[in-house]
Amino acid sequence: MDIFDKIDRMMSTDLGQYADIGHGYLAFPKLEGEISPHMVFKGKKVLNWSLNNYLGLANHPEIRKVDAEAAAEWGLASPMGSRMLTGQTDYHEQFEREAAEFMQKEDAFLLNFGYQGCFSIVQALTDRRDVIVYDQLSHACIMDGMMASMAKRFVFAHNNMEQLEDRLKKAQKIVQKTGGGILIITEGVFGMKGDLGNLAAISILKEKYNARLFVDDAHGFGVMGATGIGTGEHYGVQDKIDVLFNTFAKSMAGFGAFVCGDKKVINYLRYNMRSQIYAKSLCMPMTIGAIKRLEMLRTMPELRENLWNIVNTLQSGLKERGFEIGPTQSPVTPVYLQGTENEAMGLVQDLRSNFGIFCSPVVYPVIERGIIILRVIPTAVHTEEDVAYTLDSFEKIRAKIASGAYKNTQPSILKA
């Protein structure tokens, strides 16, 4: 068989089946204009609820100034090479010192990209003697990291502590024979449902079974906790997290990431993360920009306060109007509706073209059939007027679903 023979089959299932009708609309859409709650899609102004720009830093004038000045001084090529060889600078080290202090950890390591970084942490920390026990809804970068690791792994149902303990008992028996260790992996904030990993309960089980805890807090960093440290601070267990990963792609409005923990662990990762040893260092403009972003995150609590005002206004408004938003405890706001994938197409087209609202739809196979999720991401730069208009629009959309208005949606409309 030619290796390409499977392409037609695979593109006729799952998300691939929507490529012909949804490309440029449901998938790979082009949002134009300055990053903000109001952008342009298909030539029309839309109210945008689909960017993880939690603190509104993407177009903050202070950020734009620092980014531009750093780019003018250094260009995008500097520094050339990996951190280990020729990509180390005082600025990279400065960010690491400041990040470690803010996160209440001994050390931090600045990473070139988030996905590859998280992937590489899992791979570096585990070998064939070890056992990984991970939450069912862990991000794809964690799943890929586990596939690259030779460790045995057990999954536990999302936030199911009884099942986690059962898996830890099994893992303990295995490592007693192999001489390895146990790594628990979960997320601080789960990006689809918006609920939190139960870090308090997991921390207790971690101690009981002599395991280590790795938390991907991409959606919690800068958002959760009294000072924005993240979900560990929210639960009061920051010191119980052994390895903590945070990305710049959410609250920091950039690219890159960092990992923090005990000095010996972070130094081990510096010398063993393949995605950093064999790839270029984070460019100077983003590194200098990250220092500024971290400073603003630390010293401007009003950004987080603005965010949570919008979050609370939106989520309480949705609940008051009878919308189901699930167990979210974070800015991530999934709005659950009943309908088929075909109805979802009509709904989204109506929402974007006629109501001027852009938010990401989630349908089967990502979730079970018969459910449509509108994933709404509030930010510090949305307004209460934005929220009020969205609530009114969602009520009208819900009524149209109930009336069957989208049942005969023709997929060709998405080509418009």
How would you characterize the overall build of this protein?
- With 416 residues, the chain is α/β, with parallel strands linked by helices.
- It folds into 2 domains: 167 residues, Aspartate Aminotransferase, domain 1, CATH 3.90.1150; 239 residues, Type I PLP-dependent aspartate aminotransferase-like (Major domain) (Aspartate Aminotransferase, domain 2, 3-Layer(aba) Sandwich), CATH 3.40.640.
- It contains 15 helices and 14 strands.
- The chain has a 7-stranded mixed sheet, with helices on both faces. A 4-stranded mixed sheet has the order 1-2-3-12.
- Helix 9 links the parallel strand 8 and strand 9.
- The radius of gyration is 22 Å and the shape is globular.
- The protein starts with 5 loop residues before the first helix and ends in a 14-residue tail after the last helix.
Short structural description:
This protein is an alpha/beta fold. Helix content is 41%, strand content 15%. It has helices at 6-10, 19-22, 61-74, 90-102, 114-125, 140-148, 161-178, 199-208, 231-235, 263-270, 274-277, 284-299, 301-320, 341-353, 384-402, and strands spanning 31-32, 38-41, 44-48, 107-111, 131-135, 152-156, 182-187, 212-216, 243-247, 257-261, 333-338, 357-358, 360-362, 371-376.
